Amino acid sequence: MGPKSIHKYQRHPWRRAATLALAVLLLAAAVIALVLRVDREADVERIATVRELAGYYASLGYTLEAPATENTPVPRVYLSAFPEDWGGALEVERRKSLFFRSVMPLVLAVDESIGEERRRLLALRRIMGRGATLGEKDGRWLVGLAVRYQVRTEEGSRALPSPPEIAELARRVDALPVSMALAQAAVESAYGTSRFARQGNALFGQWSTGQGIVPQGRREGTGDHRIAAFATLLDSVRAYAMNLNTHAAYRKFRLSRAARRGDGAALDGHALAAHLGPYAETGADYVATVRRVIRQNGLGRLDGARLGTRPAARIETAGR
């Protein structure tokens, strides 16, 4: 997809319903941030232009081809916002490469954080399955997880989650395929050139009410909906992950992902994108678009990518 992949404001009713839950998602995403390595004493790199960003990636030997195998890790570099000249004259393929290299570490960081929670969840489920009693700390953590992932409400959060609730948590607390997240970010933000991406670090076009960026030509009857704005690009990815992992519209996506886990299969973004119809009013056409972006850009090979062990670096953008 090229520059014509502009934000669509004609969203599916599921998107409108999701706006009421966005505040909860953002709060939960902020909690997840506490365990992300990017927030732990990351070095700071400062860049001002696209050229400087490309030069920094080159100095790390960071290319899209490198992570195609599991033996080549992705550097822990987290771009806070796109440079001011991102929307300027930039060759299409170069923009795509820089976009995917900028967003991929963010997706992997969020997936890594979710993976840590998932491993702890499954370990506690095994302990409870043997009839053992959880310690107070583990019990509080498990209850908090159930609330954050909207398996239960704050009011009903005193008792330990039941086996069915833990089973539902196991379906929700899971990573997202890198290829699918990259393709959706490209479609929803027009490779970072949309007004929402530039002004509000919004990669995925999530709706909000009361706060956010007002779409141009907002339709009557859609209420005071806005596009949610974020402090950083990473915050946008966090909210996107929580949305797919909790909203009722994406239940089939989560069930399909769980089935793949049960079969011992790796996550496949192209396959799982089949369940993204509710993300946009265009439904099946939206799914076809996301899948086409995955195929045309060879993103499927990145589903096995992983972050390296070198210290993280936060890339701050001058003037943003």
What would you note in describing this structure?
By secondary structure, this protein is mostly helical. It has one domain (13-317). The chain has helices spanning 13-18, 22-33, 50-59, 92-129, 136-148, 163-172, 178-189, 195-200, 233-246, 251-262, 269-272, 284-296, and strands at residues 43-47, 77-79, 207-209, 225-227, 313-317. A 3-stranded parallel sheet has the order 1-5-2. It has a two-stranded antiparallel ribbon with strand order 3-4. Helix 4 (92-129) crosses helix 9. The radius of gyration is 19 Å and the shape is globular. Mean pLDDT is 85; it is low at 1-28 and 30-37.
Write a concise synopsis of the structure shown.
Helices cover 47% and strands 6% of the residues. It is built from twelve helices and five strands.
- State mean pLDDT (0 to 100 scale): 85
The profile of the biggest β sheet is:
3 strands, parallel
Our measurement of the CA-to-CA distance between the termini, rounded to an integer number of angstroms, reads 26 Å
Shape descriptor reads globular
Main attributes?
3-stranded parallel beta sheet; about 325 residues; two-stranded antiparallel sheet; 12 helices; 5 strands; mainly alpha
Q: Which helices and strands appear, and what pairs or packs with what?
A:
Elements: H1 13-18, H2 22-33, E1 43-47, H3 50-59, E2 77-79, H4 92-129, H5 136-148, H6 163-172, H7 178-189, H8 195-200, E3 207-209, E4 225-227, H9 233-246, H10 251-262, H11 269-272, H12 284-296, E5 313-317
Parallel strand pairs: 1-5, 2-5
Antiparallel strand pairs: 3-4
Helix pairs in contact: 2-9, 4-6, 4-7, 4-9, 7-12
